[in-house]
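User: Hi! I'm working on a homework problem where we have to compare a predicted structure to a textbook description. Could you give me the structure for the chain below?
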Amino acid sequence: MTKKLWFQVGVGILLAMLIIKYFMEIKGILAPLVIIAKAIFLPLLLGGVLYYITEPIQRFLEKRKVPRWGSILSIFAILIAVVWIFVAIIGPPVTKQINNLVENAPAIAKEINVMQDSLLQQKNNLPEKLEESIDSAANSLQTIAVNFGKWVVQFLQSFLQAMFLLILVPFFFIFMLKDHEKFAPFIYKFFSGTRQEWIKKTLHDIDTVLRSYIQGQLLISFLLAVLLFIGYLSIGLEYALLLAIFGLFMNLIPFIGPWISAVPPIIIGFIQDPKTGILAAIVMVVAQQIESNLITPNVMGKTLDIHPLTVITVILAAGNIGGFLGIIIAVPTYAVGKAIVKNIYARRKEIKEAATSTV
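Assistant: Happy to help. Predicted structure tokens:
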């Protein structure tokens, strides 16, 4: 019985639960280590994202015989130039639109209240069952909005607390660019034979998943933001650039993010003019269809191959556990775990087949 997979999985789950239980009991002793880990996590995460964004540039330069330090200095020069262009060209209109939005916030809030009162009045004329369904949906949306607001506040607090540690970001980033080939060999050198090959393949799969997700998701979000900006400009929607940038960042949250990014432009469009609100909704639908049917399949392919229902479940669970930051890292973390489990399963299958052939 001990050789059965279900028995081994059960024992593994029980051991994991015991480890978690005793870890929670001694967390006071480990508190300093947890604080250090939290302080390092955000700079390490940002450094890793920058590495995966710029690694293709480094590979391109080094194929043309540019030395390692030359490629690193070139990447920093490119990043500084990109930031300068963003601040010089995009910064002023974004700042202007933010100031206009802040000035018009009371009027927008008043219009939203008027729209809400009008909808509530119309609701009383609906059948009882439909009215109950609307109430239930409204309560669910309110809960999601409140939780999302809490997640954003938690993220901002964590971000502000870690600002003084951001000097570590260039530190991690430089050493990732400099020594990234040494990481995998350092790990699998402790193993030998087929086990070493398995570790090497697993690390390669993890690297492929992270590379595909980070590079693909950022490129998709950027292209979607361009589509939204063009669409918003064409219908004359106010705060077009600001709303497109908001859509860019929200699209980093798979599946749920695009729906969140659709709410502000539609509300602002209806306040501006009901026709503009309808056009804003059409722009969102068209942009999302182009993104999901043309851009994402060609950029991401089926590297992650995660079902949408799994994505929703993972994101909701991660949001409750880790707040807004948990939402951001939920899907790539799940994808990495899935790659590890697939390799474990493949390894077990190879061992089983080898044992069978020997017999």
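For your comparison, note the following. Residues 37-358 form one domain. DSSP finds ten helices and no strands in the chain. Good luck with the assignment!
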